[in-house]
Amino acid sequence: MIEPAVYLDYLNRFDIEAAGITDGEILDAITESLAMQGRGETSIEPRMHIRPRAGVEGHFNVLRGWIGGEIDSAGTKVVGDFVDNYKEGRPSEYGLLTLFDPRNGAPKALIDATGITEMRTGAITALGAKHLAPSNPRILAHIGARGTAYWNIRLLCHLYDFDEVRVHSRRKESRDAFAARLSADLKRDIVVTEDWESCVRGADIVVEASRLPQPTPLLKTEWIKKGALVIPYGTMSAVELSLTDIADKVVMDDWGQAHGIFGSLRAHVDSGRLTAESLHAELGQIVAGVKPGRESDDETILFWHRGLSLSDIALGHAMLTKAKRLNLGQRLRFY
């Protein structure tokens, strides 16, 4: 019996850019993956971490999962998260996504996931807001200017016509360049603030995507407006322990990833302030209609997302589908 040949599709950064996936296509792909998660049509394992030698400010995240349906792929993404890369003009994160046939284990695709990581994170932020933000959010506050920050704001602005978008980050040159890029791409004014407080106070949606070298409670609970949606997801926590005290609902993308060595609310889980019982829902359950999202504009809601392999697999599949239609990428003989 002759063994069947195995080929895999390869998309590099330039193929991803040439595919020109739209904001709507990104949101559609991630919406479907969340709904499938909520219906139990997926399998996801908690992320793992690889920490290199002492003295390096960075680590690797290893994400694993499977999605059924038309996607029908198992996948693993490895993404390096190195906060000092900007000093060499590099992105903070490099990512590589591998997709496999879940029926025989054969590799299907190898995809540059640096851009996918940023896009799918922004999509989870935006879709969290779609289901959890107050009904007419007017002010968006965003802390952080690198990595996933651009897609957070771009996709939130795709969903909402904000009166004001505020941004802040530690380095002036970083936040000014970030605001200039957003202003040019989104054709709107961006307010650059000099500190965390002036960015956050009075905002209807607060996204905390800072890149701290160690946990530091820079985002004060007292600044949060009643009825706001707060989305912290940095690797190192920037929030106070009291943040969960003001939340009427706490939502996650996946409770299985609430534990571990990193994460904005890890201390809240470790101290018992956030438990499986006190968690209102996973976002997929809300998207699938299994549990309610926001039910009143008076609710202050906290949405902590850790990042899902399912999102990477779904968006990678969407990228592959479009790239094939446009005759992009390479087909490599594997076996």
TrEMBL record:
Pfam family, one: OCD_Mu_crystall
Matches recorded under InterPro entries: NAD(P)-bd_dom_sf, ODC_Mu_crystall, ODC_N
Entry superkingdom: Bacteria
Protein name (database record): Ornithine cyclodeaminase family protein
Organism: Seohaeicola nanhaiensis
